[in-house]
Write a structure and sequence with these properties.
Length: 374
Amino acid sequence: MGFRLFTFIGMVPILAFFVNLALGAESSLSKAGNKIFTMQNFRLENGVVLPQIDIAYETYGTLANDGRNGILITHGYTSDHHAAGQLANGGKGWWDPVIGPGKAIDTEKYFVISSNMLGSCYGSTNPASINPQTGKPYGPSFPEISMKDIVTAQQALVTHLGLKHLVAVVGPSYGGYQAFQWGVTFPDFMDGLVPVITAPKGSGGDKAVKDIIARLSTDPNWNDGWYYEHGGIRKVLTDMRVETLKAYGLEAQLAKTISDPKSREDAIRKFAEPWAKEFDGHSLVILRRALVRFDAEKDFGKMRAKVLYVLSRTDKIFPPSLAGPVMAKLKAANVDAAYFEIDSENGHLASGSDAAKWSPTLRSFLNGLAASNR
C-alpha cells in the first residue's frame, strides 16, 4: 500500500495514518490538486526584495459570492499544504479527519485554503529554489524571513483568490504560530483564530538555530551549505527525523504492535527516509530562525478575532501548563478567548489521531463565528 507520510518537528498528526489504515477510512474529498500563486517583488520585513515568490496551495469547497466563507489552514514546521483529501499517490492529507464534507471544518459550508508557507520546500519559494541572479539554488544565501513575512504572503494569496474576509485561521504547532501572527498582523481580516498544540511566542533563541546548523554540517556532503551538487544531506536529515518521530511518541505507539526493538527502529527509519529525501536542510534553518524571533504575545492588544486555544493533555512539546498564562494574557488584552484540552494519550499528535475528541468544540466555535458574521 503506497502512502505519503508528512510530519514536522513540533507539530503533525502522523498517527492519523495509523487510524486511517486500521479503520480502512476513505477520504470524502476528491484527490487534492496542487496550485501555485506567484508574486513579483515581494518585500520582506527586513527590506530585502525577493524578485519573485511562489506559494503552493490547495483549496477545498466553494467560495461564496460575497467572498466571506473562507478558512485558512496553516501547516507545521516540516509538513506541507496537503491538509485534506486523497492525494494523487493514494495517501491522505495530514488533517483529513478534521477537514471535509460534514467534518468539523465542513467543506460543504466553508471554502478552505491550505497554503504551503514561504520558506517551506513543498512548492513555495525556499532555499532550494533557483536564485534568478545566479541560476543556482539560494542555499545558505536565502534571506532571513519572519513570521510576519509568512502570513503577509498568505494574505496576498487569499486576497488573490477572492476572499474579502476569513471566517478563521486554523493550524497546528508552527501553523498555530502563524494563526497567532495573523491575529496581530491582520486583526480585522478574520473572525476567529484556532491555534492548536502551539504557543504565541517562540523559544530557543539564536542557540537553537546554531544547533541546527551545527547538526546539519556533520553530514559528509555539507560543503559549507552548498550540498545540492554533492548528493544532498540525506544521512543527517534521516537521523534527525528518527529522533523527532521518537520524541513525538511514535516508538511508544509502535510498541503496541511491534515487540522487537530493532524492528521498531527499522519501521521508524522507513518513515523517516522519504521525508529526508524531500526536505531541504536550509528550510529547517530559516523557519527556525523565523520562529525564535516570533512574539505575538506583545501585540495581543491588537487582536480583534475570537480565539479557541487548543492543547493536548499529554503533549510534552506544548504542555497544558501553557494554557493558564496564555489565557490570562489574552483576557488581559480583552481578547474573547476560550481554551480546550484534548484528553489524549497521543501527545503532540492528538489533533489528528484523536480528532473526534476535539472536533465538536471546533465545529461549535466555527458555527458561532459564521452565525455572527451573517
